[in-house]
Amino acid sequence: MNDRYPLNRDCLSPLRLVTARGSRLLSLSLCALMLSACAVGPDYQRPSVAEPAQYKHAQGWRQANPSDSLARGAWWELYGDQQLNGLVEKLNSSNQTVAQSEAQYRQAQALVASARGAFYPTVDLSAGKTRSSQGTGSSSSSLSSSSSGIRNTYNTQLGVSWEADIWGKLRRSLEANEASAEASFADLAAMRLSQQSELVQNYLQLRVIDQQRRLLQATVENYQRSLKMTENQYRAGVSGKDAVAQAQTQLKSTQADMIDLIWQRAQFENAIAVLMGQAPAEFTLAETQDIPALPEVPLSLPSQLLERRPDIASAERSVIAANANIGVAKAAYYPDLTLSLSGGYSSSTSADLISLPNRFWSVGPQLNLPLFDGGQRSAEVDRNEALYDQTVAKYRQTVLDGLREVENYLVQLKVLGDEALVRQQALDAARESLRLIQNQYKAGLIAYLDVVVVQATALNNERSVLTLQQSRLLASVQLIAALGGGWDGQLMAAESQ
Fold it and tell me: What is its main location (predicted)?
């Protein structure tokens, strides 16, 4: 066997006990109880992973107070939007993707219950009737004499069997199933977090579109007034036909942009409906006047990332399960001891079946040790060791991916915050420029083309600020999800019991 995964051998040799003079049932039972503390295979140790002291892009990021920690609770409430809170709560109860993961978790829990049941004796009760006949060996026998050889047998039997977990095969199997159930619970939390994040992002984008629509609506109204003023000036001979055409072009282009927002909003609205488990035709989200404010996202240390992200928790539980399965595979090298007891009644008639003369019983141990299997057990150990190495690599990669995501969203939020300051300054300048150019046009000092250029610049800056606000909101959601959201790793132990 491979020495890479050492055996836990702190027990007496069972072969010496089995071959000892105490071959009676009581002696074997005592031996099994003494040896039940043994468990072959490696004991689990968490694989080493990269844990930097701090995030590279967290410099200058204000650390939130402990009372603001995201380690528990509904993280989406940070955005302070009651309607959003209600939508996420509906998702938590009705999302069908989450329901699939929840059903998978219940399957894993059932496997744990089945593994625990293997520690208890198996009790079987059977009752039946057998009709049999044996030929006389003579071809000249008559039909009547052959028929007289038919015999009826009635029997009822109660059997009890119990496998002594000498080498810890059952315990390792239970350990693997419990770890798999915890991994399934973490997968459920990861799927729920993913769906919540998707809904919050869709909702925020929809609210930004509502704000863009209000902006375009106000711009259209302003352009309509400009068009009317230009037409009046044209009729008065103050301006030319080209000014009217420019005003019309500007107005219609902005109206087209506003119409284009309709299908974009509908897509986000439909996506939110499906995330809540509803048909899109049955869901409508009314417009609101405000966009949720950008929250201050508290950060955790990199070492806490291992506890806060459900996908990392799931990956580590898979390592635990793979480690335990090595013990299950190595236990196949050692003999299985089964204690069995059976008894009942057997008779040729049913009338006096339950009577003292018809009783029978049997009791005794059975030791089973495969001597040759063509290398199957060795291959199974190698397979489980390779699977363990695979899960370790996946766990480490999951941690690295988590650290990368946090770093990406940190730098994105920092850069977008810096950009927001500059964008706002550009917007303020564009608004002031527009105010001045409009006054000059009203005074007849400049042509309308100059006004059109400045109006287009101001509108582009307005929309750029909204787009940037949307990007910052989405990045905040993604950072919260990368930090684990409202994941509570301590719930795994309670839910898996």
Answer: membrane
